[in-house]
Amino acid sequence: MSRADVCVVACADAWRGDGPVLASPTGLIPRLGARLAQLTFEPSLLLTDGEATLTHDDEPEGWLPYRAVFGVVAAGTRHVMMGASQLDRFGNQNISCVGDWRKPTRQLLGVRGAPGNTINHTTSYWVPRHEPRVFVDHVDLVSGIGHDRGAVEIRVVVTNLCVLDFATPDRSMRLRSTHPGVTVGEVLAATGFPITVPPDVPESRLPTAEEITLLRDRLDPDGRREFR
Asked: What is the dihedral of CA 148, 123, 92, 225, to 10 degrees?
């Protein structure tokens, strides 16, 4: 069992209880998490092959052309897990640029679909490197809106160190769990703003024997998920 395995099941758990919504994971770890959820505790979860075919265990089972995706988004029947170059305490996300938007020091992806995602349906984030330059007091440009700007639901942020959620009165960031071997102090040192820390912070859930077998034998036999 590796840290990557823990991160995959933490991502999978983000979709727990969602039922037949469209899961849209960005990146390998979230993609493995969504597929793992579909194969275990969330069998009605909808996934695509990255284009227009709905799949279950990589077998085609439906058709979702691009023109239909906007209806899914507007209906709120989607849960996307995106990346983030910057995140603040309320879940405002930046994937557009670093520095003043009028003359940025780094040009990134642009806002893409982040505004429409966060205003319409559940959103989670995967951050492979938890560090202060990602978790910032104020994002340089708001791409995906946070809870202080009217986001429907920023459910969880899964990182290489921990799982964060927004289960606080003002819907600001809270430490839900730390991954095995990670201390609360390490998470706080890697976060550029204060977060709510419960009196007892549990360890992140470990993969079950079934989940480990699925990851190693079917979903990722080449071990591409492992941190290099």
From this structure: 150
Q: Which pLDDT belongs to residue 52?
A: 86
Give the pLDDT of residue 225.
94
CA–CA distance, 95 with 87 (Å, rounded to integer): 9
Angle at 84 between CA 163 and CA 112, to 5 degrees: 135
* Torsion of the alpha carbons at 201, 32, 127 and 119, rounded to the nearest 10: -100
Instruction: Look up tokens 């470990």; give the residue.
Output: 206
pLDDT for residue 228: 66
Distances (CA, A) of 106 to 27, 113, 145, 220: 21, 20, 21, 33
**Pair type for strands 47-48 and 22-25:** unpaired
- The amino acid at residue 185 is G
CA 200/CA 176 separation, integer angstroms: 10
Write out residues in the chain with pLDDT < 70, as ranges.
228
Burial class from Cβ neighbours inside 10 Å (0-12, 13-18, 19+) for residue 52 reads middle
CA distance 18 to 53: 20
Which tokens go with 94?
Answer: 């930046």
- Write down the pLDDT at residue 227: 78
Distances (CA, A) of 98 to 101, 114, 133, 144: 7, 16, 10, 15
